[in-house]
Amino acid sequence: MERTWKSLAREAKQRMKKGFWEDFGARLDSERTHAKEQGINEGKMENYLREKVETEIRGETPDEFYCKVRDMLLSEGEVSDAIGRLTDKEYYATLSYAAKQRYTLELSEKYLRALERFKREYEFELKGRS
User: Fold this and answer.
1) In 23-63, at which residue ranges do the beta strands (DSSP E only) sit?
2) Residues near 28 by beta carbon (within 8 Å), at least 6 away in sequence
3) How far apart are CA 112 and CA 65, in angstroms?
4) What is the DSSP letter of 124?
5) Which of 10, 25, 85, 129 has the fewest other C-beta atoms within 10 Å?
6) How many Å separate Cα 56 from the centre of its chain?
7) What is the largest CA-CA distance in the chain?
8) What is the pLDDT of residue 129?
9) Contacts (Cβ under 8 Å, ≥6 apart) of 35
10) 17-21, 25-29, 58-62, 107-111: which has the highest mean pLDDT?
11) Which tens digit of pLDDT belongs to each residue from 13-42?
């Protein structure tokens, strides 16, 4: 199902009405405090949370991303423009230059993790058939 501008606006309005951003702010403060206590880099923690929220807003789960990668690998193998094919073009167009760089780097990292998972699962599947 393709999401229209109207449906995206409706979803955004619902998030505002239900206090999504207030909850996110409180969660961010809590995680920031926890990161300080544990000696975790706050910037990395914030990037992680930002990615989770953006994924949730786009309506994509981590498994959906893996399925996209798996389908691409099964149909075409490893391709040189995998990151370009996996990029959410509409979302990418809204980003600043620095955010585009961050998004591309994060997407690349997600792709490499999905590729490793695919290779592990595929190797296991081949051994099971032998």
Assistant:
1) none
2) 46, 49
3) 12
4) H
5) 129
6) 8
7) 55
8) 47
9) 41, 42, 45
10) 107-111
11) 888 888 888 888 888 888 788 878 888 777
